[in-house]
Specification:
Elements lengths: L1 H44 L6 E5 L2 E5 L1 E2 L2 H14 L5 E3 L2 E2 L11 E7 L2 E9 L4 H11 L5 E8 L7 H12 L5 E5 L3 E7 L3 H14 L5 E7 L9 E7 L2 E6 L1 E2 L2 H13 L9 E2 L8 H15 L2 E6 L2 E6 L5 H14 L5 E6 L3 H4 L6 E5 L5 E7 L2 H14 L5 E3 L2 E2 L7 H12 L4 E7 L2 E8 L4 H13 L4 E8 L12 H14 L13 H17 L4 E6 L6 H21 L7 E7 L10 H7 L1 E6 L14 H5 L20 H8 L3
Parallel strand pairs: 2-4, 3-5, 7-8, 10-11, 14-15, 17-18, 20-21, 20-22, 24-25, 26-27
Antiparallel strand pairs: 1-2, 6-7, 6-9, 9-10, 12-13, 12-16, 16-17, 19-20, 19-23, 23-24, 26-28
Length: 649
């Protein structure tokens, strides 16, 4: 009985244990299924259907391939919001991205009075510090604000060309926005005048790399015209404008239409500018032009709101009174009219007094006539030397104390007007100023008329016969880079650039040639050019290369001393590697010893072996002395190489 009781008790315990085990396993299965279902539902709700779930007791295993790191993190967060985050085991993979899109690199350079601002996305491989340093060298007084971001992706092949273009453009743009990307360059800028606008557009077009799209928006704000001047006259040669100013194109068209009604057939233009005294300017001008036409001959001059009409000698008094009276009645209130009927020369009994200044095409100025005192003659002579060439003034005027009180002032005003011409004559008399000649300044007539009206008064008589010649316009006639290269080569081919024996120092003849080459380069403006140094084959090859590099650098330094823009000019030594003649003869070696000037185009690329000193290359206006003698001379070089050094070209 005792054993049977013991077995019965043990049986109860075993049965209870089995029931507990089965219950526990059932409870775990329920918990696992509930957790799996809850997590799966949460993942599906978030659109994370790629994630797979595996439950092992209380542990929740996440597997599957996530499309991105962000998606993987969202799956972990979602599972952790359903079950305890510590129970979530991450076994997920992240899909490899095969074709990651390269970001679009671009940059905007903003330049204004506040300095330079850099905005955009650039490649990490770009030398950012060198780029900013190069910008700082353009104008060391400017503050540079760098807001650039960088991405670690390969730089497009054309990126460096685009950045180089932007830096070059900033050398002659004071206020601009330059937008750069690997395919297109857009430049928006403001210039001070129409002439400067034309010059800037020409320079920007010339520097554009091949294959790039270029968008230019260069504006020249309307000039402020002070005083606001207009002069219309009818004489024996017919109607014409000496000066025409208008505030709008519509106003200009109205003025020109009135002149055509008065009989003017020649083409004319009105300068559109700021400073008009009243919006009714064109209306008053049209009325005044019609009045001069009714008089037959005469002149009308506007200086702001002051109008002066000079009727020609012989005009009937009755007609003069009738026309002027009608004009006074019709003019807007803001205008003030002064009208004069000129008397005959005999009635005025004016002494035959004249001062003449003649400017030759070579820039020589001859002054003749009369001046009041020796002091006045010295004053006029000094003014002429300030306006023209100091060594080109020939003073031949004599002293006469019988001239009018304002005579010296009239003479200086006439010389000031003459300074707008390339060549011509100005004649000053007590009652008139006559100026004629040729100019390369497109607006010379208007500028001269405004000057004379301002200095002599709106009722003064003056006759302007100035013709514009495109050949004299420095902007319109700027030579092409190829023409500049040809002119330089013509000089150096006729007279060789030579150096002192065994050194990189120019001799006297070489310096004289550099003067002529510098004059050509100043007319050509900014050029991308290479100065190449070459030797014959005598001596060691390394020695020849170093000597040729030093001499090419000396030529570049000489140009800087002569105030030539050399920011885009490099010096390269080729040594004996590019002969143009046989080195076995003296004549051939003489030909191989040379300096060459070559204009570079974008397709040429940067020449190999360019060893230009970066400090020198950045200093366009460096006025230091010529480069010291090269320290690379080979003491073992033979005598033939010394001869080569003496006359290398």
């Amino acid at each position: 009985m005792r054993l049977s009781s013991l077995f019965a008790i043990l049986g109860v315990f075993v049965a209870a244990a089995l029931i507990s085990l089965v219950s526990a396993r059932f409870a775990v299965a329920v918990i696992e299924e509930t957790s799996k279902t809850s997590v799966l539902n949460a993942l599906d709700d978030r659109g994370l259907i790629w994630a797979e779930i595996d439950i092992d007791g209380l542990q929740v295993y996440l597997s599957g391939t996530a499309p991105s790191e962000a998606a993987r993190f969202r799956a972990l967060s979602t599972a952790g919001s359903v079950v305890e985050a510590t129970r979530v085991i991450d076994q997920m993979l992240v899909e490899e991205r095969q074709n990651i899109a390269i970001p679009k690199f671009s940059m905007e350079i903003l330049r204004n009075d506040g300095g330079l601002s850099l905005i955009g996305l650039i490649p990490v491989s770009m030398d950012r510090e060198a780029f900013v340093s190069e910008l700082r060298q353009i104008n060391q007084n400017e503050e540079i604000s760098d807001f650039l971001e960088a991405a670690n992706y390969p730089a497009p092949e054309t990126w460096n060309d685009a950045i180089t273009y932007a830096v070059r453009s900033l050398t002659f743009l004071d206020s601009a926005k330059i937008s750069v990307n690997p395919e297109r360059i857009a430049v928006t800028a403001i210039t001070a005048s129409q002439n400067e606008k034309a010059s800037v557009e020409q320079q920007l077009a010339r520097l554009t790399p091949d294959g790039f799209g270029l968008s230019l928006d260069i504006s020249a704000p309307r000039p402020v015209i002070t005083p606001f001047t207009l002069r219309f006259l009818i004489d024996e040669n017919g109607p014409r404008f000496d000066a025409c100013s208008a505030d709008t194109k519509t106003a200009g068209d109205t003025i020109l239409a009135a002149a055509k009604v008065a009989g003017m057939t020649a083409e004319a233009n009105c300068i559109i500018g700021l400073g008009v005294p009243t919006p009714r300017w064109s209306e008053a001008v049209a009325m005044s032009v019609a009045a001069v036409s009714e008089l037959g001959q005469g002149t009308v001059t506007f200086s702001d709101a002051d109008i002066s009409i000079l009727a020609a000698e012989g005009t009937e008094q009755a007609r003069f009174d009738d026309v002027i009276g009608g004009l006074e009645n019709d003019l807007p209130d803001v205008f003030s009219l002064k009208a004069v009927l000129l008397e005959t020369q005999d009635a005025q009994d004016i002494e035959n007094l004249e001062f003449t200044a003649t400017l030759s095409p070579e820039g020589l100025l001859q002054l003749s006539g009369r001046l009041a005192t020796p002091v006045d003659r010295t004053t006029v002579d000094s003014f002429a030397m300030a306006r023209f060439r100091t060594d080109g003034v020939d003073m031949r005027a004599r002293v006469d104390d019988g001239v009018p009180d304002d005579w010296t002032y009239r003479v200086i005003t006439g010389l000031d007007a003459l300074s707008h011409l390339s060549n011509g004559i100005v004649s000053i008399t007590p009652d008139s100023v006559a100026i004629s000649g040729a100019t390369g300044e497109a607006d010379a007539n208007t500028n001269i008329a405004a000057l004379l009206a301002d200095k002599l008064g709106d009722s003064a008589q003056y006759d302007i016969k100035v013709r514009y010649q495109e050949a004299l316009d420095p902007v319109a006639t700027a030579p092409t880079p190829e023409e500049c290269e040809a002119q330089i080569n013509a000089i150096k081919d006729a007279r060789k650039i030579t150096f002192e024996p065994g050194s990189a120092r120019l001799d006297v003849t070489g310096k004289q040639i550099m003067d002529d080459i510098a004059e050509i380069l100043r007319e050509c403006g900014a050029l991308t050019m290479e100065i190449g140094g070459h030797t014959d084959s005598q001596g060691r090859e390394t020695m020849n290369q170093q000597l040729s590099q030093s001499r090419a650098q000396t030529v570049l330094n000489e140009l800087r001393m002569r105030r030539v823009l050399t920011g885009e000019i490099t010096a390269v030594g080729y040594g004996e590697s590019e002969p143009i003649a046989d080195n076995d003869t003296e004549e051939g070696r003489e030909a191989n010893r040379r300096i060459e000037f070559k204009v570079l185009h974008e397709e040429d690329g940067a020449p190999e072996g360019d060893e230009v000193d970066p400090e020198l290359a950045a200093a366009d206006q460096d006025t230091s002395e010529t480069a010291a003698e090269t320290d690379a001379e080979d003491p073992q070089a033979d005598d033939g190489d010394s001869e080569s050094a003496n006359e290398q070209n």
